[in-house]
Design goal:
The chain is of the alpha+beta class. Strands 1, 2, 3, 4, 5, 6, 7, 8, 9, 10, 11, 12 and 13 form a 13-stranded mixed sheet that branches. The longest helix has 26 residues. The protein is about 35% helix and about 25% strand. Helix 4 crosses helix 5. The chain folds into 2 domains: about 200 residues, Gcn5-related N-acetyltransferase (GNAT) (Aminopeptidase); about 130 residues, Aminopeptidase (3-Layer(aba) Sandwich), CATH 3.40.630.
């Protein structure tokens, strides 16, 4: 192991984008939000910066000149923008006159999307990376380390290193499984390819898979939007114009302001996305009387050899129309996913209401290390109780399937 070297870098620009993205492409769950372009845009646009409470560190593992493993780490003085809530832990520390902040978080800021966090060439490198993270946290006298929304390989490495696990629940839509292909030698390549197309053939076929009451409800909601004179158009990648990006940001910013908060992401961040990672974005714009009035932005997987996955991210509206949110954030993206053969649509954190739109509960996992032994023991006991509650919750949700029985 002596031929490995750990380097902690302060900027993504200190790591080769090609080397970072090559590591990402080799992972089991190569989320587009872990691409070098995405993390660099967060950093360089001041969206995730020391001023906003996200001080970036990039922990890298090298063997000679070869990058063997890497991950982003953020030193934080709050718990905003994480979506795995540990405010109660911070309060408990404060009540005992101990400092919970600063802490270390291995995550994509403001992005509760499961995926690979510990980019590594193999299991050994991933294990060494976790060990290096814990050692670095001890050296920096940080209270804790939190890896959020990790892939199975990440969680296995964290478990081996003694970190505690915590589950939360998200809601994801999955395209229908493909029909088994009959073993008929006379089928041409074109005929077999057509039969192998996965998923629902159209939105009506998707609706037909749902229970009558859910199907009726969705049709009613869509009808309300259409009868209000609202239509939609979509653009993807480089076809998204600057005017459309500007309009999106106007809606996005307004949504945050209406809830009393400044937006997490700056306009410059989205400009950098348009410039450096356009293929990762799909934009829906709602129009009425020829004028844009609402929008939703969807992220897309970017690995050419991986199944197409869509991620619901941001939305906003300048006018209020009944059921517009459901149309912009669920039905339009789902119709697009069906038409384009997407395997999955991830609807983001929380929200049981998503089940009525056929987004089903999925467990996500984070891993945690606390430096203080007594608090670590207390949190471990808490997580055991919380974990049992999550299992019961999943069972309860499973009894409320929106799909037809049988």
């Amino acid at each position: 192991m002596n031929d490995y070297v750990i380097r902690v870098l302060a900027s993504p620009s200190d790591v080769s984008p090609k080397a970072w993205n090559a590591l990402l492409a080799a992972q089991a769950e190569p989320s587009p939000f872990m691409r070098h372009e995405y993390l660099a845009a967060l950093h360089e646009s001041d969206s995730a910066s020391p001023a906003s409470g996200w001080t970036a560190q990039f922990v890298t593992l090298w063997r000679g000149k070869q990058l063997e493993a890497a991950c982003p780490v953020y030193i934080k003085d709050h718990s905003y923008g994480e979506y795995v809530f540990d405010w109660a832990w911070a309060n408990a520390y404060e009540q005992h006159a101990l400092a919970y902040y600063p802490k270390a978080v291995v995550a994509v800021p403001f992005t509760p999307v499961p995926g690979s966090r510990l980019l590594a060439r193999d299991a050994q490198s991933r294990t060494l990376l976790v060990q290096a993270l814990v050692a670095w946290c001890k050296q920096e006298e940080l209270s804790s380390l939190h890896l959020l929304f990790g892939a199975d390989e990440d969680i296995a490495a964290c478990t081996e290193a003694g970190l505690m696990l915590r589950n939360t629940v998200q809601f994801h839509w999955t395209n229908a499984a493909p029909t088994p292909i009959p073993d008929v030698p006379s089928l041409s390549d074109g005929e077999r390819s057509a039969l192998e197309q996965p998923g629902y053939p159209d939105f009506d076929a998707f609706l037909a898979s749902l229970a009558h009451d859910k199907r009726k409800k969705i049709r009613q909601e869509r009808r309300k939007v259409a009868e209000a004179g609202v239509s939609f158009r979509w653009s993807r990648g480089k076809d998204i114009s600057k005017a459309d990006w500007d309009f999106f940001y106007r809606c996005y910013e307004r949504t945050y302001r209406e809830h009393g908060n400044p937006p997490y992401l700056t306009r410059n961040f989205f400009q950098r996305m348009a410039d450096t990672l356009p293929e990762a974005w799909l934009l829906f714009i709602a129009e009425r009387n020829g004028k844009p009035m609402a929008t939703s932005l969807i992220a897309l997987s970017t690995q050419p050899d991986e199944p197409l996955v869509a991620y619901g991210r941001y939305w906003g509206a300048l006018e209020r129309v009944d059921c517009l949110h459901f149309e912009a954030c669920y039905y339009q993206p789902l119709a697009w996913c069906i038409e384009h053969g997407a395997q999955r649509f991830e609807g983001g954190a929380q929200g049981e209401h998503k089940m009525a739109r056929a987004l089903m509960p999925v467990k996500t996992t984070s891993a945690h290390w606390l430096a203080h032994p007594a608090f670590s023991d207390a949190v471990e006991r808490f997580l055991e109780r919380e974990g049992a509650g999550i299992e019961n919750y999943m069972d309860h949700l499973g009894e409320r399937s929106p799909f037809k029985a049988g």
